Amino acid sequence: MTLTQQILWGSIYLGICFLIEIALLTWCTQVVRQMSIRLENSKRFLTIAGPISMALGFIVAIHTFQVWLWAIVWVLRDVLPDWNTALYFSLVTFTTLGYGDVVLGEDLRIFGAFASVTGLLAFGLSTAFMVALFTQVFKEELIS
């Protein structure tokens, strides 16, 4: 893959993951809002723990889905030999851990770096989402 192709395809996959993250966090917001309404008259522990647990479940699922999406790319393009290696590389790259025991060839290094950027943005967006959720949950708890 040429440098231009790596940047183009990396940007496309990054954009897809970003749209998935936004769509699922939006859905999560709606689910958490409905849950909060249902738990309004419940014990204080449930009104705090319920929405937070639900949001964390969504975030884990969203990140897992994105890791799988990148693993699919590595397998379908015959970049990595098997699903185990592809998932491992995808997860290690997505979390920006990067052990270095599995590396891409020179023709895919820039493209592979987009998986790291995807993870950075996903974790940043999820963290901001959780901070906003905690702020809202605790604000509502202080008022009641």
> What is the CATH topology?
Helix Hairpins
Helix-strand sequence: HHHH
Query: Biggest β-sheet, characterized?
Result: none
**Strand pairing plus helix content: what structural class?**
mainly alpha
The count of domains is 1
Overall 3D form: elongated
Report the radius of gyration as a whole number of Å. Answer: 18 Å
Find the count of extended strands (DSSP E, 2+ residues): 0
Taken as a percent bin, the fraction of beta residues is: under 5%
Question: How many separate helices?
Answer: 4
Protein name: Ion transport 2
Pfam families: Ion_trans_2 (PF07885)
Keywords: Membrane, Transmembrane, Transmembrane helix
Transmembrane segments: 6-27, 48-73, 85-104, 111-134
Question: Could you describe the 3D structure shown?
Answer:
The protein has 144 residues and is mainly alpha-helical. The chain has one domain (3-143): Helix Hairpins, CATH 1.10.287. Helix content is 81%, strand content 0%. It contains 4 helices and no strands. The protein starts with a helix and ends with a helix. The model has no long low-confidence stretch (mean pLDDT 92). This is Ion transport 2. The chain crosses the membrane at residues 6-27, 48-73, 85-104, 111-134. Residues 67-135 form the Potassium channel domain.
Question: Which key terms come to mind for this protein?
Answer:
144 residues; Helix Hairpins; single chain; mainly alpha
